[in-house]
Amino acid sequence: MFKDQVIWITGASSGIGAAFARQLAKQGAFLILSGRNLGALEEVASACEPGRSLVLPFETTDYAALPALVEKAWGWRNGVDCLINNAGISQRSLAIETQFPVYQKVVDVDLLAPIALTQEILPRMAARKSGRFVFISSVAGKVGSPMRTAYSAAKHGLIGYADALRVETAMLGLKVHVIAPGSIRTDVSRNAVTADGSRRGVSDGAIEQGMDPDRAVRLMLRAMGRGEREIILADGIERTIARVRRKSPNRLFDMMEQMMAAGYAERMKGQGD
């Protein structure tokens, strides 16, 4: 499906982004790999066939740099067929304890940055009437998750933007996919910000027992190939709550409140001690 297509992946240095790079390289895609860690990006690129990847490091919230970056990415092989907005940051803290700059940072990285990059490349895709946008949201973007008020807000917003964009651009030949993963075995929890904005530094049990990122990405790519526009990829309780949210919101709210009352926040905090 993606053979010889140019795929731009943000957050490509690790986790889901690096798994996308590995799996798409197997399919014969040309890859543009972006993130902040140049060394890690080069390591991911080294696993791909020589000459089929472009390392393009940048800070996703450096909005002033985007026009030049898009120009370079677009000019590499005369276009970009697919943009995978994967870069992001999570959060682990109670709302009542969380400083407002944490909200600003998470919303900036997880919502405004992918919107900014998409808006910059959108007119080019629209002009040639082909292209694909992929937005990596989360089950927390479908369900308000405790200890993640900033993260849930940003990921809910990302789904709203993507849904509206899909409606507007379908007649232009563009495709928009939203992917809402549950727990994937990455460093997302270690890199999450806490109430004061500091790095958490430890992982969650659910993340450590989560789905292998390469398997997850294979399933994502298959679903995209089938034309699925919203892809919820989760197992166990995360899959259940995503389904319950659609069918019976009040039942879900009760379930989540019971989870908090049973000491969820204390257990999460205990993992960081």
Descriptors:
globular; 10 helices; alpha/beta; Rossmann fold; 48% helix; 273 residues; 7-stranded parallel β-sheet; single chain
Question: Can you characterise this structure?
Answer:
The protein has helices at residues 15-26, 38-46, 66-76, 100-128, 149-169, 205-208, 213-225, 236-247, 249-261, 264-271; strands spanning 6-9, 30-33, 53-55, 82-85, 131-136, 174-181, 230-233. With 273 residues, it is of the alpha/beta class. It has a single domain (6-236), classed as Rossmann fold, CATH 3.40.50.720. Strands 3-2-1-4-5-6-7 form a 7-stranded parallel beta sheet, sandwiched between helices. Helix 1 packs across helix 7, helix 4 packs parallel to helix 5 and helix 8 crosses helix 9 (249-261). The protein is globular and about 55 Å long.
Q: Indicate the overall shape.
A: globular
Uncertain segments are none
Number of helices: 10
CATH class: Alpha Beta
Structural domain tally: 1
Q: Helix amount, in percent?
A: 40-55%
N- to C-terminal separation? 46 Å
Instruction: Quickly give the CATH architecture.
Output: 3-Layer(aba) Sandwich
Overall mean pLDDT stands at 94
Radius of gyration: 18 Å
What's the number of extended β-strand segments?
Answer: 7
For the largest beta-sheet, the strand count, sense and barrel status come to: 7 strands, parallel
What string gives the helices and strands in order?
A: EHEHEHEHEHEHHEHHH
Strand content: 5-15%
Sheet/helix structural class:
alpha/beta
